[in-house]
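Researcher: Here's my situation. A collaborator sent me these components and asked whether they could plausibly form a single complex. I don't have experimental data yet, so a predicted model of the whole assembly would be a useful starting point for our discussion.
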Amino acid sequence: MILDLNSFITREQPYWDELSALLRNYDENGGYRPALEEAKRFYYLYQRTSADLVKLNTFAGEVETTRYLERLVARAYSRLHESGGEKIPLKPLYWLTRTFPSTFRRHWKAFVISFTGFIAGASFGAGALAVDYDLKDQFIPPQFPHLREKPSKRVEREEKQDFDAFQGRHAFSSELMTHNTKVTALLMVSGFLWGIFTLTLLFSNGQILGFVIYDYLRDGQGEFLTAWLLPHGSIEIPAILLGGQAGLMIAHAMFGWGTNLRLRQRFARIRGDLVTLIAGAALLLIWAGIVESFLSQYHAPPFYPWKIGFGLVQLCGLVLYLSLSGRKKPQPQLTN
Amino acid sequence: MLGKTTALEVQTAEGVSFKVPIASPFSRCLALAIDIAVIIGLTILATTVINILQTIAETVPQIGRILIDFGTGAAIILQFVIATFYGIITEWLWSGQTLGKRIFRLRVIDERGLSLSFKQILIRNIFRLLDMLPSTFYLIGGTSCLLTPKCQRTGDLAAGTLVIRESEVSAPSYNELLEKEENSFSTMPHLEARLRHRTSPDEARIALDAITRRNELQPESRLLLFSQLAKHFREISEFPDEITVGLSDEQYIRNVVDTIFRKVSI
């Protein structure tokens, strides 16, 4: 049976035009939420147009109108079906106290591997320097020229300098925040290359820290080092490790061990957790950037104990927050 | 390009299936170039505004120096925010489109044909860091686009998205097409009924396509196509010479289409 195309189009076109106008309105107003009646009408128009498409395909097979209806149905379909119904979290307190720490704990194994990779790098860096101290100049990256200097000389120089609370601090803080956020995000996304690059980055970052720690301890500048690194490092390093954790979750999804799900499904399962971890890491890095600019670089010996104390409190707070916050209280067991 | 899929085929719960054309790497490159230009433009604009404010701040006694330093810090943050959030915000506000994608009529959608979630937008934009490597040459993203069947960069694979071509197709009007000329076949309804009976849906579709797309054809191809179609339909129809004489091949097919598509209602 062949469709009376002309009268079919004449009859149905007003519905298609109405649907098209609604879609255009939704496209132009991103956050627009239709009222119930409008949503019902939209759904009716979508169903009617879908039915028209089926009719046209079955009885007429006319290319141009079919293509038009396909586009219309595709756009309406996409509008009607949210992929998972996820919304931007509008409960920041809930997110901070529950979502973020519980997401971290749910993937604790990835964090342990991330931490191990970093510590392995640090141990290697310190070990390499212990074996051959001349390696120092070769291994310190060019972007850290102050680390090439003999630690005691640097300490002497830094401790003599006046602390200028504002000169260049805002710019330095901003640079640190943006740079560290990029590095952390890179640690995460490089998990896509089966985690090899993530582990390499973690190892190399740990290696630099290992060099520095060994170098300063060897020169008897342990107190300066702790007072310099702990205030911001107690937040910055865990944040970077969170990036590594997210990267290793991606790597796990790439390998697909222990699951029959397809790659798309494996990624869909971890997508929300990745966003949570990277957002959490970014927040921590913003704080670390501020601390590094305004506190860590203030090298006055009388303040060392305060700085170390601050760093320790911060580290303990972070550990407690990530391990305890948002834990559900155990339900009391019912007894007869 | 290895085994490219040119369209995403979606089957809805209502049993309707439709195809959405997938964007080519070339059109995506052009859209990206526009977006990069916009990001550079916005960054220059923001930096210029901050520079002007810093110049004004210089004149403020005591806190001028602090304000200048604050401005430098703000500029660094702004550059980062513009580069990172331009894609995220525009794709979120414009349902999967950046300015470049809007100009080239491209749109990011969920790979099942659904609308994008904010998480997907965030993930695909964070993965840009990987896709643009080495440096900003987009070698990883470009290679991934060329190697994956649906032309997806790593960000698309991780976020479960793909970029489609959005052509604004308007419903064609058949009034003008079918009612312009008088159909001489209508004087013989019994022969028209026989023609409809003998014409298969595929033959009807070919004839209708030929009419609707005739203006897209080269003159020689158009003549050849309608001559072959008319020859075929003359063989299966039995209209006498008195109503077909003087009819061009194209008019003959127009009459055939009119007979098939307009006269029978379901």
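Model: Some features of this prediction you could bring to your collaborator: Residues 174-260 of chain B form one domain. Residues 25-58 of chain B form the longest helix (34 residues).
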